[in-house]
Amino acid sequence: MTCRGGVGNRLLAGLPPEDIALLAPDLETVAIDPETVLSHAGDRIEHVFFPHSGAISLMIDMAGGQTVSTAAVGHEGAVGILAVLGPSPSAATAIVRAAGTASRIPAYRFHVAFNRSPPIRHAVQIHVRAMLMQFQLGAACNALHPVRARMARWLLYLRDHVDDDVLPLTQEALSQMLGVRRTTVTLLTRDLRASGAIRSVRRGQIEIDRSQLAAAACECYRTMRHEVEEIFSTHPARPSVLPVPDEASR
Ligand SMILES: [Zn+2]
User: Would you say the pTM of this structure is higher than 0.90?
Assistant: First the structure.
C-alpha cells in the first residue's frame, strides 16, 4: 500500500496537538484499496486504522459460508480500536469497499498512547458510542426492513464516502454485505434501475441517483447519520472546558 494523501479523520482531527504528537511518530499514511482485508475475524489486531477517505465494511462469516456486514467505517471512525483493551482478537473481518487513505498505527503503540492521554480515551469513547449505535440500529434494520431498502441504505453510505455518484462496487460485494444471494442482488438492481434510483451498472461500477435512492432507503440511513452527528456534537473529540459558575449566580 502506498500513500495517496488524505482529507482528515474526524477522530484524529479532534485531538489537541500534544496528543497527536503522542501518536505521530508511529502513524503511517497508507492507501486502502478495494477488497483489501485490514483484519481477519479471530486474528489478533495488529494495527488500528483511521480512515481519511474511503469506506470499510465489518463482515461476519457464518459457519455455512454466508456473510453479512454488521457495520461500516469511514472517516468518522476507526478499525481495530478494541486493541485499547490490550491484545485482542478482531471480532469481525474488516474489508475495504471503497478506496481511500488511512493513518495506521501498531495496536500496542496506540494502547500506550490511550493509557497516557485523556483526549485519546475520549475519542475512543466517541467511536465506541457510534459503533454501538450502528450495531443496534443495524440489527433492527436487518430484522425489520426489506432487503431492497437495506441495499439502498448501503449504497447511500458508500455514496457519502466516495463523494461520487459512480460507486466502485461489484454485485458480488453487495451480496456479501447484505447476506443475500447474488441473484437477489441482480433482481434488486433491476428493480432500483426501473425506479431510477440506479442509473447504470457496469463491470464493477454502479451509478446511482442520490435523491431517488434516498427515497428507496429505509429510515435507518438518515437516523444513523443524525445519530453520528449527535454523538460528535454532544461529545466533541476535544472536550470543552467546563464553564466556571458565575459568582453572581451562586
Ligand atoms: Zn433499515
Answer: no
